[in-house]
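Review form for a predicted model. The reviewer records the input and the model, then writes brief findings.
Reviewer: anonymous (R2)
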Amino acid sequence: MEANFISPAYNVIAVPIEKIKPNTYNPNAVAPPELELLYDSIKEDGYTMPIVCYYSKKEDLYVIVDGFHRYRVMNEHPDIYEREEGMLPVTVINKPLAQRMASTVRHNRARGSHGVDLMSNIIKELHELGRSDAWIAKHLGMDTDEVLRLKQITGLAALFKETKFGRAWIPEDESAFGTDEYDNEKDFQTV
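Model under review:
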C-alpha cells in the first residue's frame, strides 16, 4: 500500500450532472420499488454518499464507477435536480479500465447486488483486456469456479482458448454408422 495514501472520500467535489456519464459495464440492476426508495431517501436525507467516478481528460467528463442509481435519481427527478442545483457529490479514482471494472463489481457485490448476464459480460471484457482468470477472481472477489461459470454463460469459445481440457471420452470406430446395423429407424427411437 502507498505510504501517503488518502482515501477518495476525503476529497469530495461537486460536479455538474451534465459532466457525468454512466459507464458501459455496470452489472447492477435495481428494481422499481428499490429505486423509488432511493429517491425517497435522497429526497428526505439528501445525498449522503458521493458517487465514485473516473475523470476522463480526453472527454472532459466524469465516468461513473459506482453510484449510477444515485445519478439516475437526479436525472429523473426535477425536484432533486433543482434542490441540488444540478450538482452531484463525486469522489474520483484514477485507475485503468480493468481496475475500474473490478471496483464497480466489488462495490456492487459488497452490497449484494449484481446481474449474472452483466457479470458475464464484465468477465468477457476483462478477458479481452488480457486479464487472467486468477486476476479476475482475485480482483472481483470470486473463486475460479465462479469465473468459469460466468465465462460459460457468454458461450464464447474465445474465452476458453487458453484453457487445457482433458479427454473425457475417445470416440469408437465410426465406420459402423454406415452399416445395416444402424440403418433400421427403430434403433434410433427414444424411450
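Findings: Residues 179-191 have pLDDT under 50 and may be disordered.
Further findings: The longest helix spans residues 97-111.
Recommendation: see findings above.
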